[in-house]
Write a structure and sequence with these properties.
The chain has one domain. It has three helices and no strands. The chain is rod-shaped. With about 90 residues, the chain is mostly helical.
Length: about 90
């Protein structure tokens, strides 16, 4: 696309906007994409935070389960099985 063609298309768009769309409506047309983009970013950030919280929650549960299994097993392994059988 040549620059003259792009310029003529831009000027046709400007003529159309000024002729058929009132000035207050033109301002809202320029604000609408910005608002849509900011809302999209906010929703995306919220989803990212929620998914990050879910990952951290799962990691915390995994760590708790690992400790709940490991600590009693470590304590049991300290006892000699022969001594335990003699004590009974």
């Amino acid at each position: 696309m040549s620059t003259s063609s792009a310029t003529s298309r831009a000027s046709h768009l400007d003529v159309y906007l000024h002729r058929y769309i009132p000035s207050d409506r033109r301002r809202s047309l320029s604000v609408a994409p910005e608002v849509a983009l900011s809302l999209t970013l906010l929703v995306g950030t919220g989803l990212l935070v929620r998914s990050l919280a879910a990952v951290l929650n799962a990691a915390g549960l995994l760590a708790t389960a690992t400790l709940a299994c490991y600590l009693p097993a470590r304590q049991v392994l300290r006892v000699d099985p022969v001594d335990a059988l003699r004590a009974e």
